[in-house]
Amino acid sequence: MRQKSEIKSQRPDGWTVRRMTVGAFCCLTLVAGCTGPRVVFLPAPDAPVRAGPDLHGRVYVWTGSTWELSRNSVAVPEGFYIWDAGDPKPATGEK
């Protein structure tokens, strides 16, 4: 029969727990930092953004006198610039 001094505890010691905690924290920090930037779109004429992959949505089309919202969803090609144009009527070349 074993004596009490020969029986080892199955619980990890304090240093092991600390190492595991620090390791988990480092892994979570790396994963959270590698997910890419989160963006809140605030339209401004001097701050355009570019369309990302798989962007679909309804768009406005100039009919000559007004802007009309499309009935269907269209694919916006990746790389297109998107910004607040400011004036709802497109420029006609007049100065």
Essential attributes:
1 helix, 17% strand, two-stranded antiparallel ribbon, 6 strands, two-stranded antiparallel sheet, 95 residues
Short précis:
The protein is of the alpha+beta class and 95 residues long. The chain has one helix spanning 14-33; strands at residues 49-50, 55-57, 60-62, 67-69, 74-76, 81-82. The model has no long low-confidence stretch (mean pLDDT 75).
Q: How large is the share of residues in beta strands?
A: 15-25%
Mean pLDDT: 75
Task: Let me know the largest β-sheet.
Answer: 2 strands, antiparallel
Low-confidence spans: none
Number of discrete helical segments: 1
CA gyration radius, whole angstroms: 29 Å
Helix % is 10-25%
- What is the quaternary state of this protein? single chain
- Record the strand order, biggest sheet: 1-6
Shape: rod-shaped
SSE order, as H and E? HEEEEEE
- Total number of strands: 6
Termini, distance in Å?
102 Å
In words, what does this structure look like?
The protein has one helix at 14-33, and strands at residues 49-50, 55-57, 60-62, 67-69, 74-76, 81-82. By secondary structure, the chain is an alpha+beta fold. It has a domain at 49-82. It has a two-stranded antiparallel ribbon with strand order 1-6. A two-stranded antiparallel sheet has the order 2-5. A two-stranded antiparallel sheet has the order 3-4. The longest helix has 20 residues, at 14-33. The protein starts with 13 loop residues before the first helix and ends in a 13-residue tail after the last strand.
